[in-house]
Amino acid sequence: MARTKNFDENEVLELAMYLFWKKGYSATSMKELEQVMGLNPTSIYNAFGSKRELFKKVLDLYLHTLLSRFIESVEKAETARQAVNNVLRESLNLHFNVSNPGGCLVVLSLLEKEQHDESTKAMLDSALQHLQNAISVRLNQAQKDGEIRLGVDNNVMANHVTALIVGMITMARAGFSRADLEALIKKSIDIFTEQNWVS
Questions:
Q1: What's the rounded Cα separation, in Å, for the pair 189 and 179?
Q2: What is d(CA 148, CA 154) in angstroms, rounded to the nearest whole number?
């Protein structure tokens, strides 16, 4: 007779997610995962596999919950200015939310990329590329609508915005204040408007 699980998989995955997010993959031990998730090693292995397989499931959860907000903030924006402003501010909201460990699990994992296997690296690369693509698509639409000047390379502009997101998350982890980073957003929007958008 098959044994039934006496725990909610999404709940314990979320607990593991916050631990990996706080400490990073390498610094997170199985013992700590057992304690945080409230599960014994056999239960973790049976439900999620190895530590690496558990991390992939955690990363998938993160991408479909927290990181998806970045994409939504771009896609739901009424204008290109709003799309860029929204996604940059979403990165600040993620870091400065007191319920979160700070930073971004994807960005932090990319910084320790050598510790991951090829499939995990592909997940991390894809996440950042997916965000960049969503920004590029939204800017292309804005250009068709006459909001962005003809001749502007929206892919380069999307790369710039993505780099700002990664940079701001890293700066926030390094102790830069929210006020410092909000000023950076404002200045960036001003530059984008001056150089790229139709007045």
A1: 15
A2: 9
Q: What is the model's pLDDT at position 41?
A: 92
- pLDDT averaged over 10-residue windows placed end to end, the chain, 199 residues: 66 96 94 96 93 96 92 94 96 94 92 90 94 96 94 95 95 95 96 81
Left, alpha or beta for 97 (phi > 0: left; psi -120 to 50: alpha)? beta
CATH pick for 66-196 out of 1.10.357.10, 3.30.230.10, 1.10.8.60, 1.10.1740.10: 1.10.357.10
How far is residue 60's CA from residue 38's CA, in Å, rounded to a whole number?
21
Q: What homologous superfamily is domain 9-58 in, according to CATH? A: Homeodomain-like (1.10.10.60)
Confirm if 89 and 77 have CB atoms less than 8 A apart: no
